[in-house]
Amino acid sequence: MEGNFIILNVIAFLGIKQYTLGFDEVSGDVTGTETADLLLSSDPDFRPADFEIGDDGALYVADWANAIIGHMQHNIRDPARDHTHGRIYRVTAPGRPLQAHVELDGQPIPVLLTALQHPVNGVRQRARVELSERPTSEVISETEAWIAQWEPSEPEHAHHLLEALWLHQQHNVENQDLLDLVLNSPVAHARIAARTVERMWEHNAAAPVRMSSADASADGGPAAAARPDLGEDAIVIKAVMEQMRYDVPTFAVTAGAPVTILFDNEDYTPHNLVIAQPGAGEAIGAAADALGAQGFEKRFIPDSDDIIVASDLLSHGEFEVLTFTAPTEPADYEVLCTFPGHRGTMHGIMTVEH
After folding, report:
1. 3-class DSSP state of 73
2. Are residues 135 and 72 in the same domain?
3. pLDDT tens column, 217-246
4. Buried-most residue among 22, 33, 118, 258 (CB within 10 A)?
5. Counting beta carbons within 10 angstroms of the beta carbon of residue 131, is it exposed (0 to 12), middle (13 to 18) or buried (19 or more)?
């Protein structure tokens, strides 16, 4: 689990997913690979909304524990909402001793700086919080004395120098010499983190400059996969960023004619595009909701004879080309995203006409 990326899900998949991470040492781009689920429950009211690694090293999970959740499909004043109950789970490893408490509250600055060398991030975070409350002049003076013991060329010292750089950033004190040391660290993580500090000190709100041109676009951003040229007759539909809707909610096709749709997900939330028989959208959406934890495996596409065509469940930046023959019966056919909670606003109409 250490070093993995954790996602808590309160809709559809009820549990905690985790991903192992890889990263480009030059650009800093991070990729994730799904691994075994960290926590999973068959309880339909299990809503893991937050988690923390406690001072004792145990994993604490806050469970919303609510049958009704607000994602546009339920009124915020629904009387079935539970405003009084919740659960907290404490997860430990059997037979393994818990982590010893590290006293930091009220400790002198040199003790807090030493705590920044602790292997547990939670201890280091508490030390950072304590140091943020102390007078800037004292913190910076003690920090400069503390970093004198570290050798910039030694990989094992890179983290401590980065912590010192973060302290300067936290107290809004620029130290170009220290920044240059960490920018040239032998450890990639430290170099990448230092570039973030550099951008902030330069007061530059622009996107970071890519250090590698290998998978980069002309403007320095990540290169998107090229969208195919499908001709003038193709219908292009995009999921609008952070608006939970299709940019083209209605379109018309000719009965019995071939249809090509390019569905492009520009949103950070996963979406699909399903075209269904007239009046069948709500039943299909409800069946997708009922898939629960199996939904991701089935792309939240339930088994239904009323589905004419459906895309995969697309993540941010992904696209799919759908090709099919339009129904021969003129009517208004339903278009919707069947990811739970999305169809309330992500819906439209495909009109079939002669």
Report:
1. coil
2. no
3. 433 334 456 788 888 899 999 999 888 999
4. 118
5. buried
Let me know whether 74 and 115 are in one domain: no
pLDDT (tens digit, 9 = 90+) per residue, 301-322?
999 999 999 999 998 889 999 9
pTM above 0.85, yes or no: no
- Asked whether residue 86 falls in the same domain as residue 114, the answer is no
Closest CA to 102 of 83, 75, 126: 126
What pLDDT sits at residue 13? 82
Neighbours of 181 (CB within 10 A): 21
Residues 230, 264 contacting (CB under 8 angstroms):
no
Q: Are residues 84 and 136 in the same domain?
A: no
In a domain, 329, yes or no: yes
Cα–Cα distance between 313 and 300 in angstroms, integer? 7
The domain in which residue 76 lies consists of 5-91
Q: Is the pLDDT of residue 62 over 90?
A: yes
Query: In degrees, to the nearest 5, what angle opens at C-alpha 198 toward C-alphas 219 and 181?
Result: 125
Whichever domain contains 290, its CATH number is: 2.60.40.420
